[in-house]
Design a protein that fits this description.
230 residues, mainly beta, four-stranded mixed beta sheet, 16 strands, disordered N terminus
Length: 230
């Protein structure tokens, strides 16, 4: 079986300061996957970039003056949307980031996969499976806000889910440490012209019972904000 391999560009970087990202000589990581559109068709010549980020003294997941950010590998998908990148392994990164379609080629969205960790690799290989890109002009944002009423102090919102055609600009490959899922505001990126269902659980502290609720939302051609009172 013929192996489909993308064009691969390796950037060799020399780091001299202990506070910066350092590389393991001779050890390479493999990133592979496929980029498709919403019709399940492979997209050719989509840029895929690998970046290493070392968290600085101020913390967080975005590069800052106190952090180090390097991009050791870049490649492009083949005629079927497949990609395969080989990059040198780092020794001290806080997270690995994969950036898909940063130049927004052909009008498709950009996507970032954040917080990839060394333990996600098997034999130095990470299979990212399939990543779907949408045309940017076919996307809108949906903001869902849960508002507590004066009579609902005994209730809490849990397990909020969106049922419908949605995507993201930045997604976490691994959950963020200490992340608390008690938000009252949820932001989504969704396709235009569809019906969305927001499903959530209402937990009652007094009766120790849970009921599942749904809200139907019509998505048209503009950004929308939906307020759900409980």
């Amino acid at each position: 079986m013929k192996l489909l391999i993308t064009y691969i560009f390796i950037v060799f970087l020399t780091i001299s300061c202990d506070n910066h990202i350092t590389y393991q000589n001779g050890t390479k990581l493999i990133f592979e996957g496929k980029i498709i559109n919403q019709n399940n068709e492979g997209i050719q010549d989509i840029q895929v970039k690998v970046a290493y980020y070392k968290e600085g003294s101020y913390g967080g997941f975005l590069p800052s003056q106190s952090s180090d950010y390097k991009e050791p590998g870049i490649g492009y998908t083949d005629a079927n949307g497949n990609f395969k990148l080989y990059v040198y392994s780092a020794t001290n990164e806080s997270e690995i980031i994969v950036i898909v379609n940063e130049d927004k080629r052909y009008g498709y969205q950009e996507k970032k996969l954040l917080n990839i960790q060394d333990e996600n690799f098997i034999d130095y290989k990470l299979n990212l499976n399939t990543t779907t890109l949408y045309k940017s002009d076919n996307l809108v944002t949906l903001r869902v806000t849960f508002e507590r009423t004066s009579s609902s102090n005994n209730l809490s919102i849990k397990n909020v889910q969106l049922i419908g055609e949605s995507t993201f600009y930045e997604g976490y490959f691994n959950p963020i440490n200490n992340y608390q899922n008690y938000n009252s505001i949820f932001n989504y990126v969704v396709a235009k012209n569809q019906n969305i269902i927001i499903q959530y659980d209402l937990y009652d502290f007094l009766t120790n019972t849970t009921s599942t609720q749904v809200r139907n939302i019509i998505i048209e051609n503009t950004n929308i904000e939906e307020i759900i009172a409980y």
